[in-house]
Amino acid sequence: MTTCEHLAKSADPEARTPEGCEECLAAGGRWVHLRRCLECGHVGCCDSSPAKHATAHFRATGHPVVQSFEPNETWRWCFVDSTMG
C-alpha cells in the first residue's frame, strides 16, 4: 500500500469563508459541494459545480490536499497523488 506524504502532513486551518465557496460568493455563483484546502483554508466548490473552484485553487497554488466541507463528511483528497484519505 502506498502512503501519501501530502495526506500525512496535511494541517487543519480554519475555513476562510465558512459560508461557502470563496469565488462563487464574490461572483454570485452557485455550487454543489464544498472542499476546504488543508494548507490555507480556502473553501472552493467541487468538480460537480459549474466553476470547479477547488481544483482551480490547487492548479493556481499547488496546495495538494482538500477535505470535504460538507456536514458529516471528513474524507480528504490529494490532487498530486490522486489519493483519498
Account of the 3D structure:
The chain has 85 residues and is an alpha+beta fold. It has one domain: Herpes Virus-1 (2-Layer Sandwich). Helix content is 24%, strand content 19%. It has 3 helices and 5 strands. Strands 2-1-3-4-5 form a 5-stranded antiparallel β-sheet. A hairpin with a 7-residue loop joins strand 3 (65-68) and strand 4. The mean pLDDT is 96.
Secondary structure layout:
Blueprint: H1 5-9, H2 22-27, E1 34-37, E2 43-45, H3 53-61, E3 65-68, E4 76-78, E5 83-84
Antiparallel strand pairs: 1-2, 1-3, 3-4, 4-5
Care to give the gist of this entry?
The chain has 85 residues and is of the alpha+beta class. Helix content is 24%, strand content 19%.
What characteristics describe this protein?
alpha+beta, 24% helix, globular, 19% strand, 85 residues, Herpes Virus-1, 5-stranded antiparallel beta sheet, single chain
User: How is the largest sheet built, in terms of strand order?
Assistant: 2-1-3-4-5
- Sheet-strand content, in percent, reads 15-25%
Share of helical residues = 10-25%
Largest sheet: 5 strands, antiparallel
Shape annotation: globular
Gap from first CA to last CA: 13 Å
Number of strands: 5
How confident overall, as mean pLDDT?
Answer: 96
Q: Which structural class should the secondary elements be placed in?
A: alpha+beta
| CATH topology type | Herpes Virus-1
SSE pattern, N- to C-terminal: HHEEHEEE
Q: Radius of gyration, Cα only, in angstroms? A: 12 Å
By CATH, the superfamily comes out as Zinc/RING finger domain, C3HC4 (zinc finger)
Question: Residue ranges: pLDDT <50 for 5 or more in a row?
Answer: none
Q: What is the CATH C-level name?
A: Alpha Beta
- The CATH architecture category equals 2-Layer Sandwich
Q: Number of folding domains?
A: 1
List the total number of helices: 3
